[in-house]
Amino acid sequence: MTAQPSARILALSRPKEYFSTYQCRCRPMIGGRTALAKFGYPSERLLRLAEPKKIPTAALVRRSPELSVSLAAQNYTASKRILELAQPKKVHPDFMPPREVPTQISSFATLANASARVQKLAEPLIRETTCCTKHTHPGDLISSVSRSSQKAVASPRTIELSKPKQVHAKYMPPRDPEWPVTEAAKHAVATPRVVELAQPSTRPRMGLTTLNPDAFKVKEAAIKAACSPRIEELARPIQR
User: Fold this and answer.
1) pLDDT tens digits, one per residue of 215-239
2) How far is the first Cα of the chain from the last one, in angstroms, to the nearest whole number?
3) 233: exposed, middle or buried (Cβ count in 10 Å: 0-12, 13-18, 19+)
4) Distance (Å, whole) CA 68 – CA 62
5) Phi-psi region at 135: left, alpha or beta (left = phi > 0; alpha = psi -120 to 50)
6) How far is CA 47 from the centre of its chain?
């Protein structure tokens, strides 16, 4: 009953801190600042830093639209070159200013009388279409042929040029898809060679070669064959 706990036991007996209060986004900053610190009065250092920057007097002078001109500049005598450059640019001697839109007609032009030539030129140009005739009755001819044209005799050259273009002398027109078979072709007898060529190929199908046991049988002549020295030379493997 009189035993006293040690410092280690007292440290372990303290309850575990509850950190759920710091789970919100607006948790206090690290450094132990109290909640009432933001309501405190700022220090002199903060007040001095919060003051706006003062504008220098030289900047205020330059900002004024009325600049003071020095006496040397007022009493300066410009040179000929400066006076030449100070003159405004002149326009071209052939320049004509834009004319006003409502043109004023002189009294002489209003009282003038047009001549016969001017009145003739003022008339619109009438052009008649000569490529086709005017509309006529249904029974009339489209175009009338003169009597001299009806009695004209064509020259040999004109007759030659009026002939249509002829085809080649060896030209043969395309044959019809159906044509009659000649009697000689009907009674023709095929030769033995033609009959031999007309026979279908007797090659076995590829599927039947696997079922035929003699498909890869070697002939007797191939077994007894002797290769030449050249074949033996070519049969040797290449030594690299």
Assistant:
1) 778 888 888 888 899 999 999 998 8
2) 102
3) exposed
4) 10
5) beta
6) 65
Copy the structure tokens of residue 154: 């064509």
Q: How far apart are CA 228 and CA 223, in angstroms?
A: 14
pTM over 0.85, yes/no: no
Q: Rounded to an integer, what distance in angstroms lies between the CA atom of residue 57 and that of residue 66? A: 15
Q: What gap in Å lies between CA 237 and CA 235, rounded to an integer? A: 6
What does R_g of the chain's alpha carbons equal in angstroms?
63
For CA atoms 152, 158, 164, 167, the dihedral sign is: positive
pLDDT tops 80 at residue 127: no
C-beta of residue 114 within 8 angstroms of C-beta of residue 122? yes
